[in-house]
Specification:
This protein is of the alpha/beta class and 665 residues long. Helix content is 37%, strand content 18%. Strand 18, helix 16 and strand 19 form a beta-alpha-beta unit. Helix 6 packs across helix 21 and helix 17 runs antiparallel to helix 19. The chain is globular, with a radius of gyration of 26 Å.
Length: 665
C-alpha cells in the first residue's frame, strides 16, 4: 500500500506530509499524536470570566467576515448554547464561513469573555463531542489540518498489517503489554484514558528498548574498536594556535581540547560527546579539533541542522581561522548550482580543509578527498544510513558531537553510553549573566514598555508562546493575538513576524534570517527557535505561559539573548509563586537547572504539552520517560548478553539490525 492509495490524498497533500517526515505508509501509521485532550463540556451559564471552555452551540446567524491589516481576518457570529445567546469570534479562519450555516450544531473551543458575552474561539468542530471522550492531537504543517491527518491515518489503518514488534515475546509477557497492532490503533483512537496509558507504555518501552539495544551493542563494538587514524600532530603547534586566540580558554575548554587531542592522536576512533551549557564555548573547541585534523593534512566536515545555523558557524569560524592557512567553505541548499558544483570539485580535489553545511554534506554527489573528522550536533546522531553512506565512500571518520543540553552525568552515560563525554561547565570570561524576572499577565503593559525601551535602543526582542494552532483547549496564549496586541500597542511602528511549527522549512529559514539581519524588531514564535542561532542584537526574551514549559526548555530559550556586550533580560509570564520559575530567576547554571527540572517534574504529565527536542523519537521522551529508559536499558543488556553468541537466530528483526550495524564497523 502506498500513500497515493489513500482516499483523498493527492500529490499536493503527499508533498505537505513530507514536511512532517511522512514519506510512506509506515511513517503515516507511526505518526503518533503528541497529546491527548480529554473533552469536558462546559455549561456557558456557569462559565467564569476568562475561563477556557468547550461548549456545544447552534449557529444563530450568518458569520460576518472582516479583514484588517495584512494577513489578518476574523469571523463573528451569534450562537445559542444551553438556551443562552452568545457571540463567537475566531481569527484567521475565513474558510470556515461557508460551513457555519444557521441551525448547524458545532462544538466551540475558546476563552469566555463574560463582560462582552463572547467566546474567542481557538477551534471549532462541526460535530457533537461527548463529554469524557478523548481527542488525539497531532503536530501539523502548512496545508494539513487535524481533521485531514486523522482521516489519512484512519484510512491507512483499515488495511495496514505491517506491525513489527521489537519487544521480545518474553518481555511482552513479563510486563503484560498489549500487542503492537492494538497499541498503534489505541494511540490514534483511544476510547478512554486507560487505553491511552496502555498504548503509551507499550510504544514508549518498545522505542526505548530498541534505542538502548543499539547503544549497548555499540558499547560492545567500541570495546574492540581500534580503527582510528593515528595523527602525528605536535601539541606545541596546537598550543601556538590556542595562544593566538584573542581570548583565554576556560579550564573546562582546555580539558576538552586535551581529551580530543588524545583521541585524535591515538589508534582508537574518536566517538566523543562535547556537552556544554548555553554559551559555554563549544564552537571554539570544535574549531580547535578541526585545526588538529588540518595539521595532519585531513579534511573536516561540520554539520548544522539548518542553513541559518550553518551560515552563522561559517562567519564565526572564518574569523577565528583568519590567521591560519586553513581553507574554509560553506555548502548550503540556497547556493546557485554553479557555486555548489565548484565547491564539490574543490572538496574532491582536497582544496578545502573545513566544509561547513547541513546534512546535505553526506549526499551521494558530495565527495571528499580525505574526510577524517565529522562534527555534528546531538540531535543528528549518525543513523545506520548515514554511516553506511560514509562507509561506501571508503570513510570511517572520527566523530565529535556537540550537545547544548546540559544533563546530569549519570543520565548522559545512559543515553550516550557508547561515547566518551567531555563536559564544559565554566563560561568564558566577560559573558554577562541574563537577568530573569517573573511577571503576571496583569503586568503585560510593563513588559510592553520593556520591549519599547529595548527597541528604542536599536535592539531586538524574542517572544515565545507555547501554542501550536491546532485547537488547544488549555489556557495558552495565541501567537496571532500576541501579534495583534503588539501592533495595537506600538501603533504599527515596529515590524514583527510570526514563526511556528506549521511553516515550511524554507519559510522558517527566511523569517529567522530576516530577524538575524535586523529586518524585523520582534520575532513571535513557538519553541521552534533554533538552539544555537546567534542574534547578537537581541536583548529581551519574553516567554508567555512559562509554566507550560520544562525548566530545561526555558533555559535554552533564555540563552537566545545575552550573546553580546549589552545587558539582557528574560521575562517569564506566569505565576511568581511558582517554585519552578523561581529556579530560573535564581540561577543561570544549566546543569543546576536541569537537576532541579528532573526533581520537580517527576513522571511528567501524560496529557501535558510534550517538550520539543526529542527529534529521534516518535513517542518517547528521554526526559519524561527516564524510569522506562532505565528499565529498557537493563532489559536490553540482558537480551544482548543472552543472544549475542547465537547471532539472534530467534529474533530476525534484531539479527537484521546487528547485520546493518556490524557491517559498518
Amino acid at each position: 500500500m502506498r500513500l497515493s492509495d489513500i482516499k483523498g490524498l493527492g500529490p499536493k497533500s503527499i508533498e505537505y506530509l513530507k514536511n512532517l517526515d511522512i514519506n510512506d505508509i509506515d511513517d503515516l501509521v507511526t505518526y503518533y499524536p503528541y497529546r491527548h485532550d480529554i473533552i469536558v463540556l462546559n455549561d456557558i451559564k456557569e462559565a467564569e470570566d476568562k475561563q477556557n471552555v468547550i461548549i456545544e452551540c447552534i449557529v444563530d446567524s450568518v458569520p460576518l467576515a472582516r479583514r484588517f491589516r495584512a494577513n489578518m481576518s476574523s469571523l463573528t457570529f451569534r450562537a445559542v448554547s444551553n438556551r443562552k445567546m452568545i457571540a463567537v469570534v475566531i481569527f484567521n479562519r475565513a474558510f470556515l464561513k461557508t460551513h457555519l450555516k444557521p441551525g448547524s450544531v458545532i462544538t466551540v473551543f475558546g476563552k469566555y469573555d463574560k463582560v462582552k458575552n463572547t467566546v474567542v474561539a481557538s477551534d471549532i468542530k462541526f460535530e457533537k463531542l461527548k463529554s469524557g471522550s478523548i481527542e488525539s492531537v497531532y503536530h501539523l504543517t502548512s496545508g494539513v489540518t487535524q481533521k485531514q491527518i486523522k482521516k489519512y491515518i484512519n484510512e491507512a489503518l483499515i488495511n495496514y498489517d505491517n506491525y513489527i514488534d521489537y519487544i521480545p515475546e518474553y518481555l511482552n509477557e513479563k510486563y503484560k503489554f498489549i500487542s503492537k497492532k492494538e497499541a498503534v490503533n489505541k494511540i490514534h483512537n483511544p476510547k478512554n484514558e486507560a487505553e491511552v496509558k496502555q498504548a503509551l507504555i507499550k510504544l514508549k518501552y518498545e522505542e526505548l528498548f530498541n534505542f538502548m539495544f543499539k547503544i549497548n551493542y555499540m558499547k560492545e563494538i567500541n570495546k574492540e574498536n581500534k580503527n582510528g587514524y593515528v595523527r602525528d600532530v605536535d601539541s606545541e603547534e596546537v598550543n601556538d594556535f590556542i595562544r593566538s586566540l584573542p581570548f583565554e580558554l576556560t579550564s573546562d575548554q582546555d580539558k576538552a581540547v586535551s581529551d580530543i587531542y588524545k583521541d585524535m592522536t591515538s589508534s582508537k576512533r574518536m566517538n566523543r560527546m562535547l556537552e556544554g551549557d548555553v554559551g559555554s564555548g563549544k564552537t571554539i573547541v570544535s574549531v580547535i579539533a578541526s585545526y588538529i585534523n588540518y595539521l595532519a593534512h585531513h579534511q573536516t566536515a561540520l554539520m548544522a541542522p539548518t542553513e541559518v545555523l550553518a551560515s552563522q558557524h561559517y562567519e564565526t569560524i572564518k574569523g577565528i581561522l583568519s590567521s591560519t592557512n586553513m581553507r574554509v567553505e560553506l555548502l548550503v541548499g540556497s547556493l546557485k548550482k554553479s557555486q555548489k558544483d565548484e565547491i564539490a570539485k574543490k572538496l574532491s580535489e582536497g582544496k578545502i580543509d573545513l566544509i561547513i553545511g547541513t546534512h546535505a554534506l553526506l549526499s551521494d554527489n558530495v565527495l571528499f578527498k580525505d574526510l577524517r573528522l565529522v562534527i555534528t550536533d546531538e540531535q543528528h546522531r549518525f543513523g545506520v544510513n548515514q554511516r553506511a553512506n560514509l562507509k561506501n565512500k571508503g570513510i570511517l571518520p572520527d566523530i565529535l558531537y556537540m550537545s547544548a543540553t546540559p544533563i546530569p552525568r549519570t543520565f548522559a552515560l545512559t543515553i550516550y553510553g557508547d561515547m566518551d563525554i567531555s563536559i564544559i561547565k565554566t563560561k568564558p570570561k566577560g559573558r554577562k549573566e541574563i537577568n530573569t524576572i517573573i511577571k503576571s499577565e496583569k503586568e503585560l503593559v510593563d513588559v510592553y514598555e520593556m520591549m519599547k525601551n529595548e527597541i528604542d535602543k536599536g535592539h531586538q526582542v524574542y517572544i515565545v508562546s507555547p501554542l501550536i494552532e491546532d485547537g488547544q483547549t488549555v489556557d495558552l496564549t495565541d501567537v496571532n493575538k500576541i501579534k495583534r496586541n503588539i501592533e495595537l500597542y506600538f501603533k504599527g511602528k515596529v515590524k514583527s513576524s510570526i514563526m511556528h511549527g506549521k511553516l515550511s522549512k524554507n519559510d522558517k529559514e527566511k523569517i529567522m534570517q530576516d530577524f538575524k539581519n535586523g529586518k524585523t524588531d520582534i520575532l513571535i514564535s513557538t519553541t521552534v527557535i533554533e538552539v544555537g542561532v546567534d542574534v547578537k542584537n537581541a536583548t529581551l526574551m519574553v516567554i508567555y505561559d512559562a509554566n507550560r514549559f520544562g525548566l530545561a526548555t526555558l533555559h535554552q530559550l533564555r540563552g537566545r539573548v545575552g550573546r553580546n556586550e549589552f545587558d539582557s533580560t528574560c521575562v517569564l509570564i506566569g505565576d511568581n509563586k511558582n517554585p519552578r520559575l523561581k529556579v530560573l530567576e535564581e540561577s543561570n547554571d544549566g546543569f543546576y537547572i536541569t537537576e532541579k527540572d528532573y526533581e520537580m517534574r517527576g513522571e511528567g504529565d501524560l496529557f501535558g504539552v510534550k517538550q520539543s527536542g526529542d527529534m529521534q523519537f516518535k513517542i518517547a521522551s528521554l526526559h519524561d520517560d527516564m524510569k522506562i529508559l532505565l528499565q529498557a536499558r537493563d532489559d536490553s543488556k540482558e537480551f544482548l548478553r543472552n543472544n549475542l553468541n547465537n547471532h539472534f537466530e530467534n529474533y530476525k528483526e534484531y539479527a537484521k539490525i546487528i547485520d546493518e550495524m556490524g557491517s559498518l564497523d
